Amino acid sequence: MTNAGPVGGRRGLPLPSIPKGDVIASYETYAEAQQSVDVLARADFPVNLVSIVGNDLKSVEHITGRLSWGRVALAGAASGAWFGIFLAIVLLIFSQRNDLSFEIAAVLLGAGFGMLFSLVSYALTRSRRDFTSQSAVLASSYAVVVDPEQANRARNVLANAGRGTGTVL
User: Fold this and answer.
1) Which of 70, 77, 116, 167 could form a disulfide with 111 if both were Cys (CB 3.0 to 4.6 A apart)?
2) Closest to 58 in 3D by CA, of 134, 140, 142, 141
3) Does residue 3 sit in helix, strand or coil?
4) What is the mean pLDDT of residues 130-150?
5) Are 58 and 137 in contact (CB under 8 A)?
6) Any alpha helices (H) in 50-96, and if so which ranges?
7) By C-alpha distance, which of 49, 22, 50 is closest to 36?
8) % of the chain at pLDDT higher than 90
């Protein structure tokens, strides 16, 4: 599959692949792996040869609360009001009038329709999903992978910086 280039030509996009190289360290958190890459960057290591690979991916859904009719109505009204504000700004830009009656009406109508659509949606799915949540894909561990020709240099840089606290391989 090819996509149009910036000047209209067709060019192929590289397919994503797992980086090849040596694992120089493994960490429990992404932040720790990222700090190791920062150490390498400060040591003028060619970081374009470094990758952070998450292993054992898991989908995690944190439940943040219960849904209620009031909560659904408020969230829908707020969402609709934002759309109404957008329409109000467009009306304000292209309008020759000095009063804001149409703009205020756009915000109120947006909030009303947003509330109505949210309540109808909640009524249709109430028995199946009666809670709010946030989803994320997390890894059990993060490996710092480096081009094989530069792996020993990277290990030495991390060791000298005291970043060998991960499971160094």
Assistant:
1) 77
2) 140
3) strand
4) 92
5) yes
6) 69-94
7) 50
8) 60
